[in-house]
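Section handout 9: paired folding examples.
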Amino acid sequence: MLVAARKWLLALVELSEPLGEGPDVLDPELLPVEYDDAAIAEYMGEVSWHNGGEDES
């Protein structure tokens, strides 16, 4: 069963990422992140810090 799983996984990788295609280095193209500072500040004001940051509901 382990041999069959290994063969299936290798076949899946072979289909999804052919050897020799693209760079061999992990260098993702990350998108810029925008934070909603007002929403974060509002949440921080509502959280109870007496019980480890968990809401009291």
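Moving on to protein 2 of 2.
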Amino acid sequence: MLTLRRPLPSTLATRPEAARRPPVRTAARTTARAAGLALALALAVTGCTGGDDEAEAGVDPSTQDWPAAVDPATAEGDVWVVWTAVAEDGDQAAVDAAVAELRTAGYADAAPLDPACQEGTAELLGAMGFDEPTAVGLAFASAEDAGVFDTRFAGTTVSLTSGPWTCA
């Protein structure tokens, strides 16, 4: 025979009316929950509004001029490339349309770029399903310039990559 050493909790009581009884709320428990919720809300609001320091706020792309693209082959150090179109080899119509869109936006020197010329980019595009991609993008000297372009450009952005350009 099975014997219990301690009584059943009140929610498992054998009387039906005891099982329907709401849990007892104490003032201390309710006050602690309210204080915790108020603290979490205050931290969330503080995190969303940021500080008063304008230097930490970054750049507002809507107030910036369109950034100048650089020639990645002559740029020193890392370049940031905003890829606006990627197509498999042979899809020349998609490439031409992307180049025309960039030229309309004011980038007269826009042309297809070889993703294999930037370290890690071919692997990234390969992971996206492009085995032998032809890509169109603009290279910028800084992450800030690439971000301003990416935000202001109304067309499609496929990816943003950074790294040294290895082709001359």
